[in-house]
From TrEMBL, chain A:
PANTHER family: CYTOCHROME C-TYPE BIOGENESIS PROTEIN HI_1454-RELATED (PTHR31272). This is Aromatic aminobenezylarsenical efflux permease ArsG family transporter. It comes from the Bacteria. Residues 19-226 form the Urease accessory protein UreH-like transmembrane domain. Keywords: Membrane, Transmembrane, Transmembrane helix. It holds the Pfam family DsbD_2. The chain crosses the membrane at residues 20-42, 54-75, 95-115, 136-158, 170-198, 210-229. InterPro entries: Cytochrome_c-biogenesis_DsbD, UreH-like_TM_dom. The keyword Transport does not apply.
From TrEMBL, chain B:
The keyword Signal applies. Keywords: Signal. It comes from the Bacteria. This is Nitrophenyl compound nitroreductase subunit ArsF family protein. InterPro entries: ArsF-like (IPR047698). It comes from Gaoshiqia sediminis. Residues 1-19 form the signal peptide. The keyword Signal applies.
Length: 232, 137
């Protein structure tokens, strides 16, 4: 699949389309796959409500778009930021493992949130479905910042020069973000549809939402441990 | 406490299973006059795409450029960007992260973008591009 999109990219003459394809190719890369799996699991955990899964995926993609847009800004206005590029690319992949473990452990309630204010805010977020989507946005922002070697080259090496030279300008990072989010939204929606099909047969499982959350947390921790293990 | 021990156990297990072979880095040095150099800047942590690029480059050099390697007309060096001396050396090429460069005299061709783009989905394209670039110098 990646080869197909790479060939499409080679033939593309439209910058916005090229940026979108680049995002799609990036999301299918091996080192971005682990964060994508985590994102799919996180978004898909609300599989009982397909609308919420779809909205969650869009909000997640919006988070990514904000990050890519903001990071592109200084480059677009002419700043030479080799140090920033180096920092984000070299240390992003080191941080994603511990971050995934931390999020997973918090989701399993292994580590209580010590501050009363944060606990109250979390309860409010979970009680109100509309407000609850802010976690998807934050996840998108943070995951987009977790540049690995592959995504770093795709973004800083290919997309940023395209952004600077093209008439599409800062729309290109947005198109790139859409490309990175498509596969995540697609797979999360598939899970939601599959879950609903299965759930009809298991209507008595009232605790399914809790177990989904725990499963997602385990996925986060497992991928986080794998990522950290790769550092050594 | 029990949960923390489980996490620590899993973490140690994961790191123990991921033993990496030693990476022999070259000292940063410019190529000699008349020499074509393939420079691969990497770090101690290497991803699947990075390993694929290294494999493709090494394979192409060993199969298509074996004579040039043997005679010293062509050299392949890997540098560790985690070492400060190498990081400073790399700055002259505007390189701060993993990169694949081909040098001859004053000519520096940066194949990093193409390497990462094609290494996994279309390695043949990368092989062709790599060989053509060396032959063009």
């Amino acid at each position: 699949m990646q080869e197909y999109f790479t060939n499409l990219l080679d033939q593309s003459a439209f910058p916005l389309w090229s940026a979108f394809l680049l995002g799609l190719i990036t999301s299918l890369g091996p080192c971005t796959l682990s964060t994508n799996i985590s994102a799919v699991a996180f978004i898909g955990k609300e599989a009982q409500c397909r609308r919420r899964v779809f909205l969650g995926g869009l909000v997640y993609t919006l988070g990514r778009a904000v990050t890519y847009f903001v990071v592109a800004l200084p480059f677009y206005f002419g700043a030479e930021l080799l140090n920033l590029t180096t920092f984000l690319t070299r240390y992003g992949e080191m941080l994603i493992g511990p971050l995934l473990i931390l999020v997973g452990v918090v989701m399993l309630d292994w580590i209580p949130i010590p501050f009363p204010t944060f606990s109250k805010l979390r309860s409010q977020l979970e009680a109100d479905p509309q407000k609850g989507l802010s976690s998807h946005f934050l996840l998108g922002v943070v995951f987009a910042l977790a540049f690995c070697s592959y995504s770093g080259v795709m973004y800083f090496g290919l997309l940023i020069p395209m952004t600077i030279q093209s008439s599409g300008g800062l729309l290109l990072p947005i198109a790139f973000a859409l490309g990175t989010g498509v596969s995540v939204v697609g797979f999360a929606a598939l899970i939601a549809f599959a879950f609903q099909a299965v759930n009809r047969w298991f209507l008595r499982i009232r605790q399914s939402e809790i177990w989904l959350r725990r499963l997602v947390a385990v996925v986060f921790i497992a991928i986080g441990i794998y990522q950290v293990g790769r550092l050594f | 406490m029990k949960k923390l021990l489980v996490l620590i156990f899993l973490f140690v297990g994961a790191t123990a299973c991921q033993q990496k072979p030693a990476f022999e880095a070259s000292r940063p040095v410019m190529p000699e006059a008349g020499q074509t150099a393939v420079y691969y800047f990497r770090t101690n942590f290497i991803c699947e795409t990075c390993e694929s690029i290294e494999g493709i480059v090494q394979d192409e050099l060993d199969t298509k450029f074996a004579d040039e390697l043997k005679s010293g007309k062509l050299v392949f060096k890997q540098f560790n960007l985690d070492e400060k001396e190498t990081a400073d050396f790399a700055l002259q090429f505007d390189v701060g992260f993993k990169s694949l460069l081909i040098l001859r005299g004053d000519t520096v061709i940066n194949l990093t973008n193409e390497a990462f783009l094609y290494a996994l989905p279309n390695p043949e394209k990368l092989r062709t591009l790599f060989a053509e670039t060396i032959n063009s110098l």
